[in-house]
From TrEMBL:
Its EC number is 6.3.5.13. The gene is murT. The lipid II isoglutaminyl synthase complex catalyzes the formation of alpha-D-isoglutamine in the cell wall lipid II stem peptide. The MurT subunit catalyzes the ATP-dependent amidation of D-glutamate residue of lipid II, converting it to an isoglutamine residue. Keywords: ATP-binding, Cell shape, Cell wall biogenesis/degradation, Ligase, Metal-binding, Nucleotide-binding, Peptidoglycan synthesis, Zinc. It comes from the Bacteria. GO terms for biological process: cell wall organization; peptidoglycan biosynthetic process; regulation of cell shape. The keyword Nucleotide-binding applies. This is Lipid II isoglutaminyl synthase (glutamine-hydrolyzing) subunit MurT. It is an enzyme of class 6 (ligase). The active site is at D338. Residues 65-189 form the Mur ligase central domain. Forms a heterodimer with GatD. Zn(2+) binds at C201, C204, C217, C220.
Length: 412
């Protein structure tokens, strides 16, 4: 509904104003950007505000266990070639944060919105998106395979009959299961490094056979759909078979996959892959992730890894040994308070790197590394870990609140 200039009702306007006032008060009180509290106040005054705000926009939703913040940024950059964009770029991805972000973009044509996995079906109902990008689903923190399967089922029910074009990863069986209730799906071969949550068939529970890049259920025949877009090394292949080079400042295979999906999304709005991919080069860091900062005369690259699949993707993008690695793990509310997920991560991938461990749960991590047979040192804090590392690049990998602690200490 781009270009629809039907004005907001007085009640909706009041809700937006009250939300902004609450956000300003919260910000003045030192509680972050205030966007979430602002959104909560606004939604309390006008529960339909999100759908009213979205009504004026072509909405694109992005959800996944990993990579949704980055992909939202990449899609937003690409679509700016076609018109003004509003986005929840700071990652406030539940309804209050989304409402607050959209309230700030009254002149936008496109709304590019990251959505927490648990809210996708509801936000899709409220915002009537034109496109929905689904990247991957895997266990997060304490979630286990059964919960991840239930989430896929919720998506499948919520997206059945959607009018949106769903752009979905053909290489993730749970994503395929979730998306295949939608009438209009564009499949992207975006790859899947973490397969531990994808050995059983989402449709029938049978064992998936995985010859090469393909996958098929031996019991019911549920199988990988034929993709029309693909990530192929350093290139994106479009539906006509043309190969477009990916140039990103962001590191790693996972971000190339995010770029491939983003190019497919942009194409559904008429932005050609070449234009979309050129614009994606602008994205340097996303909410501090991948940022390289100078601290104690070393170059620290800050990497966020929140769950086992995220750790695995991160190990694959760091510089090879002997580049030192600092690992930081907390177990506060936003991280999940149980650290048993550490046992799902294959830390032997770090063999050969000098390793320091820090964070609230450095001893849990130390036990895990000891069992993995790795050499490491336990340090008091980031300062000590950096001090005992040789000069040059250091890769610093942290989970959620540990990452925030780190940015406060070493960030610009
Ligand atoms: Zn099956």
């Amino acid at each position: 509904m781009a270009g629809n200039s039907e004005p907001l009702s007085p009640r909706a306007k009041l809700a937006v104003t009250a939300g902004k006032a609450a956000a300003a008060v919260s910000k003045a009180a030192g509680r972050g950007s205030g966007s979430v509290i602002g959104g909560k106040v606004a939604l309390r005054l006008d529960p339909d505000l999100l759908s009213r705000l979205a009504h004026h926009l072509d909405v694109i939703l992005v959800s996944a266990t990993n990579g949704k913040t980055t992909t939202t940024r990449l899609i937003a950059e690409a679509l700016r070639a076609a018109g003004p964009v509003v986005s929840n770029a700071l990652g406030a991805n539940m309804p209050a944060g989304i409402t607050s972000a959209l309230a700030g973009g009254s002149d936008a044509r496109y709304g590019v919105i990251e959505v927490d996995e648990k809210y996708l079906a509801g936000v899709a109902r409220d915002t009537e998106p034109k496109a929905i990008a689904l990247l991957n689903l895997s266990r997060d923190q304490l979630d286990r395979a059964a919960e991840t399967r239930m989430l896929a089922e919720k998506w499948r029910e919520g997206l059945a009959g959607t009018k949106a074009t769903v752009i979905a990863n053909a290489d993730d069986p749970l994503i395929v299961w979730a998306a295949s209730s939608s009438p209009n799906v564009v499949w992207v071969a975006a790859g899947q490094e973490w397969k531990d949550d994808a050995w059983s068939c989402p449709a029938c529970g049978g064992v998936l056979q995985r010859p090469g890049d393909d996958w098929v259920c031996g019991e019911c025949g549920f199988r990988r759909p034929v993709p029309s877009w693909a990530l192929n090394g350093e290139y994106v292949l479009d539906p006509h078979g043309a190969a477009w080079p990916i140039h990103l400042q962001l590191p790693g295979r996972a971000n190339k996959a995010n770029a491939a999906t983003s190019a497919a999304v942009a194409a559904t709005f008429g932005v050609p892959p070449q234009v979309a991919l050129e614009r994606m080069y602008q994205v340097q860091a996303v909410a501090g992730r991948y940022d390289v900062v100078t601290f104690q005369e070393r170059e620290l690259r800050l990497l966020l890894a929140k769950n086992p699949a995220g750790w695995l993707e991160t190990f694959s993008l760091i510089d090879p040994p002997p580049t030192p690695v600092i690992l930081s793990v907390n177990a506060r509310g936003a991280d999940g308070t149980d650290t048993s997920w550490l046992w799902d991560v294959d830390y032997t991938r770090l063999a050969g790197h000098p390793i320091c461990v820090i964070g609230d749960r450095k001893l849990d991590l130390a036990v895990r590394l000891e069992v993995a047979g790795l050499d490491f040192r336990v340090c008091a804090d980031a300062d000590e870990a950096v001090r005992i590392s040789p000069p040059g690049r250091i890769e610093v990998i942290a989970n959620y609140t540990a990452f925030q602690d780190l940015r406060r200490r070493v960030g610009n």
